[in-house]
Amino acid sequence: MKRTFAMLAVSMLATAAVPALAKGDLEAGKAKSVTCQACHGADGNAADPQYPRLAGQYHDYLARALHEYRDGSRTNPIMVGFAKPLTDQEIEDLAAYFSALPGKLGTLKGHVQGE
Amino acid sequence: MIRATSLALLLTMFSVSATAAEKGDAAAGKTKAYTCSGCHGIEGWKNPYPNYHVPRIGGQNYDYLVNALTEYQKGERSHPTMRAQAESMSEQDIRDIATYLSSITP
């Protein structure tokens, strides 16, 4: 009985820990990212100001954006076309890859007046 | 000849800068960005439902920021908090804020 509880506790902990981690595969994301580079830059730091920089962005925000483009809740003629065929795993892989790249993005901490 | 070339160069530069959305006032943007830091100024801050990190916007590209804020304002991009924030902004506010945010370096 004790053992069953212990096992249950372990499996619950394991389940709870999963969402906190980036689930994507960096190498798979890198391979898939070739298409993205034309606009978002080879290093994810888009030089053309109309496209967002992705390098160093939070992985779950990037994944969220791709999910929104895929389900149509966020509309952008270019991104909808790219996001539509992506699987959940491919979204996680891409998000993991771009979030791991060194970037120029940061929070606003220490950058606004009145803090 | 040199004069003609420099005039042509000047004209080219002018037309290039005119195609991008006109930039705002970074100093004014810094003041106006105070509210943004409530969420975007805290490392690791998360949006509650659904649960994901609010994006890092310091150092993001200017035109993209202008577009994002304008989309929130028009309701083309749905996020209740961001929509409420953007609704109260003028075009000048958006340009000022985007100018300041895009100027931030880590």
Rg from Cα of chain A? 18 Å
Tell me the CATH superfamily of the domain at 24-100 in chain A.
Answer: Cytochrome c-like domain
> How many strands, which pairing sense, and closed or not: the largest β-sheet of chain B?
2 strands, antiparallel
The proportion of residues in beta strands of chain B is under 5%
- Remind me, CATH topology of the domain at 24-100 in chain A? Cytochrome Bc1 Complex, Chain D, domain 2
What fraction of residues of chain A sit in β-strands? under 5%
The total of beta strands of chain B comes to 2
Low-confidence stretches of chain B: 7-19
Rg over alpha carbons of chain B? 17 Å
Order of helices and strands of chain B: HHHEEHHH
- Average of pLDDT of chain A: 86
Q: What is the annotated CATH architecture of chain B?
A: Orthogonal Bundle
Write the layout of secondary structure elements.
The complex is a heterodimer of chains A (115) and B (106).
Chain A: H1 2-17, H2 26-32, H3 34-40, H4 59-71, H5 77-83, H6 88-100
Chain B: H1 2-19, H2 26-32, H3 37-40, E1 46-47, E2 52-53, H4 62-74, H5 80-87, H6 91-103
Antiparallel strand pairs in B: 1-2
Helix pairs in contact in B: 2-6, 4-5, 4-6
Word description of this protein:
The complex is a heterodimer of chains A (115) and B (106). Chain A is mainly alpha-helical and 115 residues long. Chain A contains 6 helices and no strands. Chain A has a domain at 24-100: Orthogonal Bundle (Cytochrome Bc1 Complex, Chain D, domain 2). Mean pLDDT of chain A is 86; it is low at 8-20. Chain B has one domain: Cytochrome c-like domain (Cytochrome Bc1 Complex, Chain D, domain 2). Chain B is built from 6 helices and 2 strands. Chain B has helices at 2-19, 26-32, 37-40, 62-74, 80-87, 91-103; strands spanning 46-47, 52-53. Chain B has a two-stranded antiparallel sheet. In chain B, α2 packs across α6 and α4 crosses α5 (80-87). Classes of the chains: A mainly alpha (115), B mainly alpha (106).
